[in-house]
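note to self: dont lose this again. the chain is below, predicted strucutre after it. 184 aa total, dont forget to put it in the shared folder this time
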Amino acid sequence: MRLNQSFYNQPTRKVASQLLGKFLIRKIGNKKIIGEITEVENYIGPNDLASHASRGRTKRTELMFGQGGFWYIYLIYGMYYCLNIVTEHKNYPAAVLLRAVKPISGLGSKMKTDGPGKLCRAFKIDKSLNGKPAFGKNCQLWIEDRGVKILPRQIKKSTRIGVDYAGKYKDKLWRFYISDKAIE
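---
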């Protein structure tokens, strides 16, 4: 079942933990690429110094201040796209970064999905999907619940990767991953 917009309008940490075990689906023509979400990171509020939104409302971050359920995609290091889903409510900037998926179908055996840039490359995700909804019938990219149950003891928490500059926010345990499927 495709997740609806109300799913994303919940607190970010709740959305993030519930995304583990869900399935990212990318439709390109008649082809579908599918992966089970195994690792995510939270970016929450205007004071989170690791979040783009901490710099205020800009053309780049405007999507983070919008309603939940829309894709926020940006380029890092001039070469890698990162896929985020906006969460919570309008005017409160928050999103979940999808860091890794377990390939299920539609990918070659050598395709890597163990990092946000690799995930986007494998799923052919770029800025053309930025600002598009993750809900509704005509999406090219969405998340489905296929009934996989992830037990609370399977969910591990750690600090986010690459945010040493974020003051006290660098120590937040806002990275969630499935213990037997995660990328360390």
